[in-house]
Amino acid sequence: MKKRIIKKFLYVAIITSLPILISLFIFCLNNNEKQDLWDILLVIGTIYLGLLAAFQDFVRGLFYRPELDCELILEPPHCHLLENNLTYYIRFKILNNGNVSANNVEVFLKSVIDKNNKYVSLSASNLLWSSIKLERLEKENPFSSYRMYWDYLSPNTYQYCNLGEISQPLLPEQDRSGLSAEQRLSYKFNLSLYWKANDGSFSLLPGKYTFELIIAASNAKPISKIYEIEFTGVWNKNEKIMFSESIKLLKNE
Fold it and tell me: What is the DSSP string of 9-75?
């Protein structure tokens, strides 16, 4: 925080001091003519306004800009169970702590590493936002309702983005014969990727995984977040038990 304030001060000091230095240089060149003080002030003002107009976006960006952040809280309502489809949704809070809106915000899953420190073979892709585009629900292609980008995120607000979902392993009407009790309760974690490969690599078996995310916007500095999560694979309809025993957040960086 202190470094950022010092950096802003230096930028502003350099920009505001340029007109004065240039004016003093001109004054020195013309000191034999006894240039009037008002002429000096006029030169300073003209140069200052010219520089301010040329660098107005840069100067404004020093004080007014979005600041992205990401939070993962493994408890309702942030992560929750939908009773109608018996699916748990693991969601991030994507926040804008800045003082202007963040435009075209995206959450990119850069990599997934398993417990053996090996990269999971899957195509890097954007994650889906939790909210869909209601105006497109009536179209023939329901996939068009999913969001890759959030159009704008106002200051001091947030939206949810899905990391993945966990569905009940076997619904009551499915055949459970030949399966052990453990197999009947074991689940997979399906990543909420915008582009899912046909090989099913987006579906992760129980285990420990490290997720590296990049949160970015068209007018904000991107940030990187790393989460290590353990999935035991044991299904439980009780949210409290599921988020404390079956899904565990081990690392948050």
Answer: HHHHHHHHHHHHHHHHHHHHHTGGGT--HHHHHHHHHHHHHHHHHHTHHHHHHHHS---EEEEE--S
Superfamily of domain 68-252: Immunoglobulins (2.60.40.10)
Residue with token string 């290590």: 228
Q: What is the pLDDT of residues 45-91, one digit of tens each?
A: 676 666 666 666 666 666 788 999 999 999 999 999 988 888 999 99
Classify the C-alpha dihedral 131-185-74-221 as positive or negative. Answer: negative
Residues in a beta bridge with 152: 103
Give the global pTM. Answer: 0.73
Cβ contact 143:224 at 8 Å: no
Q: Which range has the top average pLDDT, 52-66, 177-191, 219-233? A: 219-233
